[in-house]
Specification:
Layout: E1 7-12, H1 18-34, E2 40-44, H2 52-61, E3 67-71, H3 77-94, H4 106-112
Parallel strand pairs: 1-2, 1-3
Helix pairs in contact: 2-3
């Protein structure tokens, strides 16, 4: 018996712009539609509904106990390091038995996608790469 892959919990920042929030919700719905075998839910850490906690509850109510949390924001910075893990820790207390590894961290994003932050930094550059440049 193989273990099913974890469900996908997408964490958005949130916005006061309803069109922006709706674009995020549309993305989450479309991802779920394209991958019916994978439970998908999304929520925001602030400003917009649904809150991240509701997305976790939705997954748990669907029988999910293992999910990967992935930040989906232009600059995750402190949110990926602090806010999202803190929100997930609260949800773990509310839903005992659930496991939520955070699947992406901002440092990993900078390493794999240097064009997103203007090029390699001194700390993220692979051996031989110059800071301020990225792959072509």
């Amino acid at each position: 018996m193989t273990t099913p892959p974890p469900a996908l919990l997408i964490a958005g920042h949130g916005t006061r712009d309803e069109a922006g929030a709706e674009a995020f919700r549309d993305f989450v719905r479309e991802l779920g539609r394209r991958h019916p075998e994978l439970p998908v839910a999304g929520g925001f850490i602030e400003l917009s509904p649904p809150p991240l906690g509701e997305a976790v509850t939705e997954l748990v109510e669907r029988g999910v106990r293992r999910f990967a949390a992935v930040p989906l924001m232009l600059v995750s910075a402190g949110h990926a390091k602090g806010d999202i893990p803190a929100a997930l820790a609260r949800e773990k207390e509310r839903h005992p038995g659930s496991r939520t590894p955070t699947a992406a961290r901002s440092a990993r994003t900078r390493r794999c996608c240097p064009s997103w932050n203007g090029g390699w930094t001194r700390r993220s550059a692979p051996r031989g790469a110059r800071p301020g440049t990225g792959p072509t």
